[in-house]
Every structure is written in C-alpha cells, then in structure tokens.
From TrEMBL:
One of its GO terms (cellular component) is plasma membrane. This is Flagellar biosynthetic protein FliQ. It comes from the Bacteria. It is found in: Cell membrane; Bacterial flagellum basal body. One of its GO terms (biological process) is bacterial-type flagellum assembly. NCBIfam families: fliQ (TIGR01402). Belongs to the FliQ/MopD/SpaQ family. InterPro entries: Bac_export_3, FliQ. It is a multi-pass membrane protein. Role in flagellar biosynthesis. Keywords: Bacterial flagellum, Cell membrane, Cell projection, Cilium, Flagellum, Membrane, Transmembrane, Transmembrane helix. The gene is fliQ. The chain crosses the membrane at residues 12-39, 51-70. Pfam families: Bac_export_3.
Length: 89
C-alpha cells in the first residue's frame, strides 16, 4: 500500500467519523445553548435542567438518524474490506 492510498483511506474514515459525530453533537449543542440562555435569563442554576434536555435530544437523534448512521459505518466497513485484496495483491 502506498502512502497516498493510506492517506486517502484514513481521510475517508475520518470524514465519515466527523460526519457521524456532528450529526449527534450539533442538536445537543443547540439545545444546550438554548437552555443556557434560559438559565441566564431566569437565573436558575440547576444542573439537571441543562443535562436532561440534551440527553433527550441526543437519544431522539439516535432514534431518528440511527439507520443512516449504521448505513454509513457499514459502507465504510465494506469499503475498507473490499480494498484489502486490491492493496495487498
């Protein structure tokens, strides 16, 4: 395997991982920001108030995007294993 092929494979894997993580993290980040603004306005400093909505949004995102996330990781897995005979032989 040449260095260019290895870099391409690792770059593809990292882009898939970043895409998957961003799908899970961005909705939680937005809800956390909204809750933080609400807490700043009302001066309520309760830790569970910021944790529970983010947890629920993350779980809802996993439920809604789970099929797509699994498909993406499966495609990456198949791409890597289909490239093994080409790269070794």
């Amino acid at each position: 395997m040449s260095p260019e092929q290895a870099v391409t494979l690792v770059g593809h894997a990292i882009s898939v991982i970043l895409l998957m993580v961003s799908v899970l993290i961005l909705p939680s980040l937005v809800v956390g920001l909204v809750v933080a603004i609400f807490q700043a306005v009302t001066q309520v400093n309760e830790q569970t108030l910021s944790f529970l909505p983010r947890l629920l949004v993350t779980l809802l995102t996993i439920i809604l995007a789970g099929h797509w996330l699994l498909q993406e990781i499966t495609d990456l897995f198949l791409f890597v294993f289909s490239a093994i005979p080409v790269e070794v032989g």
